[in-house]
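Entry 0007
Protein: Phage portal protein, lambda family
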Amino acid sequence: MNLLDKIVAAVAPVAGVKRAQARLALEHARAYEAAKTGRRTAGWTTPSSSANTEIGPALERVRNRARDLVRNNEYAARAISVLTTSIVGTGIQVGMGKSQDLWNRWVDECDADGQLDLNGIQALVARCWKESGETLVRLRYRKPDDGLSVPLQLQVLEPDYLITVNELTANGNVIIAGVEYDLLGRRVAYHMWRTHPGETGYNGSQARVRIPATDILHVYQKDRPQQVRGMPALAVSMMRTRDLSDYEDAELVRKKIEACFSVFVRTDDPVRTIGAPGDTPDARRIEKLAPGMINYVKGSEEITFANPQANGAYGEYTRTQLHAIAVGAGVTYQQLTGDLSQANFSSMRGGRIEFNALIDQAQWLTFIPMFMKPVIRAFGEAALLVGKKDVKGITPKFTTPKRPFIDPVKEVLALKEQLASGMISPSEVIRSMGYDPQEVWEEIKRDTETMQKLGISPDKTAGLSLKEVMLQPNAAE
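Output (structure tokens):
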């Protein structure tokens, strides 16, 4: 109460009470509605814990459930596939300048398992990241005489290898969820199992190893400051996905029950039955229905047919839930379901614009800085150790996967207008289509030289088919 309130309360207590009540009501009205307590917010538990406190106890269970959904639920499997394909496609290409040939040779040799190239490793890393919440990649340095163009290989590991332990070390470092930090807050090591804890054939009693942080690439989406571990992309929509699956199962059972044609006979005679006589030993009649059958019943008997009621809201409810699942997984409804019945060019393009912005973030803010750039740095360091000095001073150029046009005519015309107005460069246009500009320029140069040797004018062949081009004068036989 201020001075005026105290004076009013002393002179007129009733008026003072009204002033205090009005002030409390005004303060209550000005407060955030989400901060109020009452019937609407009863049971809403909101602890102020850190990201690691929230993620740590739930990570393993959520991760295992996400994998189970991907194995057994079509929508979950589709969401992970869409995210993986959109982030890496057939591989994020890297322009390495004068070291391009060395890089291209190493791309085919980099898998420690000897099965994939770097493009396949990218897809594996992205899929594990989205499905399990994070991916570990161990840098495996090899001997110079192992026959590799660069003595380095990559080993992709699931996050199960990382031990979920929180403790202090003897030198004062702290371990949070298996990641060791020094006194300056820098990652210095990862504490991991030597083998996968869920691998068949191991009894669980295995060694714990400490691997320097310089040898491990940890790929995950960092949503909060000081967050150490990542959560699966399906974590938000996981319960809704499972509930929808249960609802579909229940609806299927109901449909099966509806398909059963049931007849109920009410009679006062426990011996009499409806239907034709049977050949049973006790001469009891066998109840059955036949086309055109006419049967007489007594006045005390009544026949009632089951009349199941159809559920008309099934489709609309399922569609609504799938929209929510798609939003939670970070994909569009059309991508999740393949349902284009309610889509047109504007809606498809509008949804793709927002989706592409999310994919750009995943590529340029997580995947490239956490995986691609560290791999390139390790490649350069390993190349220098064996005398490959061409890698010094190279700035890599990344080309992300091309995005297919929804309406090629309209979108190509838009690109041409932007190019003509100087808003974008030809190289940027080529990169947006998923190609390396340097390779495109070199290919155009080779094709132009070949056409000149054959006496084919590029202007004359514009708009012609391949057959018409080959029929030009001086064309190769």
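Curator remark: Residues 3-35 form one domain. The two ends are 101 Å apart (CA to CA).
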